[in-house]
Amino acid sequence: MKATGMILNELATVLPQIAGDDGAVALERALVRANRIFTSGAGRSGLMLAAFTNRLMHLGLSAYRVGDVTTPAIHTGDLLIVASRSGCTAGPLNNARVAAASGAEVVAVTADPLSPLAQCATTTLVIPTSPSAQPMGTLFEQVLLLTLDAVVLDLMRELQETDESMRERHATME
């Protein structure tokens, strides 16, 4: 399929730019020192963060998706990771502002380093996604998921977790 090659080429262009980014390193450090971790994103970005939140739980970290009925209040010492390609999506932006006002650390993942979301964040990880032949924010969402999966691998090493230890935390009722 021609489209698969095009997608792989776009990913091969963008992912190396993220690998050494200060924002990616700061994200990993923030995850390790946080009391609790919260994630917020809308649409497909939110789905990528949901998958990441699930893996954080598998790592033994206290992780919550904003909007879930069991999500507690955020406080000082906690971390909110917010993803929005535009950095202007109302819900996630509001969540970032609430978290910052509560004294929590905020990591923004966005394509726009000058966006309102980036401006209220403690740390920003910029995912450059222009130009792209893929529709809408697809490249952003793909890179977001792959970057967060790479963070999980780094955290596994740092936290001395294995596939087996993580599997012990996997849901037994589905």
What would you note in describing this structure?
This protein has helices at residues 2-19, 22-33, 43-58, 90-101, 116-120, 138-158, 163-167; strands spanning 37-41, 63-65, 79-83, 105-110, 123-126. With 174 residues, the protein is an alpha/beta fold. It has a single domain, classed as Rossmann fold (3-Layer(aba) Sandwich), CATH 3.40.50. Strands 2-1-3-4-5 form a 5-stranded parallel β-sheet, with helices on both faces. The radius of gyration is 16 Å and the shape is globular. The chain starts with a helix and ends in a 7-residue tail after the last helix.
List the helices and strands and how they pair.
Elements: H1 2-19, H2 22-33, E1 37-41, H3 43-58, E2 63-65, E3 79-83, H4 90-101, E4 105-110, H5 116-120, E5 123-126, H6 138-158, H7 163-167
Parallel strand pairs: 1-2, 1-3, 3-4, 4-5
What is the element string, with H for helices and E for strands? HHEHEEHEHEHH
CATH architecture term: 3-Layer(aba) Sandwich
Q: Describe the sheet with the most strands.
A: 5 strands, parallel
Beta-strand segment tally: 5
Span from first to last CA? Answer: 35 Å
Radius of gyration: 16 Å
Could you state the oligomeric state of the chains shown? Answer: single chain
Identify the CATH class: Alpha Beta
> Helicity level, as a percent range?
40-55%
Binned strand content: 5-15%
CATH fold annotation: Rossmann fold
What is the CATH superfamily label? Glucose-6-phosphate isomerase like protein, domain 1
Which descriptor suits the 3D outline? globular
Structural class: alpha/beta
Number of structural units classed as domains: 1
- Average pLDDT, to the nearest integer? 94
Number of helices: 7
Low-pLDDT residue spans: none
Record the strand order, biggest sheet. 2-1-3-4-5
